[in-house]
Each structure stands twice: as C-alpha cells, then as structure tokens.
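sry for the spam today, last one i promise. struct tokens for design, 149 residues
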C-alpha cells in the first residue's frame, strides 16, 4: 500500500498573517509620521523666510513695527498649512533695521508623535532659519551703508 504524503508546498500558515498585518500597519504609521514632519518642515521654512523678508522690506524706520509685522507674517504663513501643535516665529539675536545688517529669523513647529499602545512621547520639534541682509540702498533708513568696508 502506497501512502500519500501531504503536499504543503506554497501554503502559508495562519501564523504569518499577524506578522504581515503588523508590518503593514507599522509601515503606514512610520510613513504618516514622516509625512507630518515633512509638512512641518515646509511650513517652518515658509514662515522663517516670510518673517525675514517682511522685516527687511518693512517700509518704516522703526524696528518695533518691523518686528511685529515680521512675526505676524511668519506666523500667518505657517498657519496656512493648517498643522496641529504649537508654532512660533522669533528673531535670532538682535534684529536691527540698519543698512547691511544681517537679520535672521527662526520658525519652530511642534509635530505630535503618533502614540501607539498608550505611549506618551514628546512631540517632534521642527526648526528652520532664514537670513537676509538689509538693503544698503534702501530708502527711509538713516546713515551710510557700511557694506564692503
């Protein structure tokens, strides 16, 4: 009597299915977190650039008014991306409205991390800086342009 053996070639057991599901779900969560961080990076680059440009091109000679306008413009540029978490725009160092001075603004955005299994991880902080030089030939500012001296 010839006994036939079971042919199990090509059959995947049920024990592999939970592993496959975990890999796909984990991959999707990592991808979602990376996408959120990329969105935040794009937003902070726009916020820092807009704040710096607004400060440098502000029509009045008063630095306080230029600072308010710059922070407002940077925050408004970041809010257009509709991200969740805290966002801020601030100058780096002393932002002076003098000819040929370099002005730098930094924008930050907190990105909430995806919480798995009740984990309370701290948010990811994304930063960007933008820098420009006040135009040496700009109208409305007193003094001489010390650029290149």
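last one done:
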């Amino acid at each position: 009597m010839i006994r036939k053996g079971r042919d199990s070639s090509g059959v995947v057991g049920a024990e592999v299915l939970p592993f496959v599901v975990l890999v796909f779900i984990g991959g999707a969560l990592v991808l979602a977190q990376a996408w959120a961080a990329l969105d935040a990076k794009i937003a902070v680059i726009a916020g820092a650039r807009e704040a710096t440009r607004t400060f440098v091109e502000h029509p009045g000679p008063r630095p306080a008014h230029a600072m308010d306008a710059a922070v407002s413009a940077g925050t408004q540029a970041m809010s257009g991306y509709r991200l969740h978490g805290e966002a801020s725009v601030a100058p780096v160092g002393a932002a002076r409205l003098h000819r040929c001075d370099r002005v730098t603004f930094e924008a930050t955005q907190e990105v909430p991390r995806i919480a798995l299994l009740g984990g309370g991880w701290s948010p990811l902080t994304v930063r960007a800086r933008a820098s420009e030089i006040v135009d040496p030939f700009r109208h409305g500012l007193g003094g001489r342009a010390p650029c290149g001296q």
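The mean pLDDT is 83. ok im logging off now
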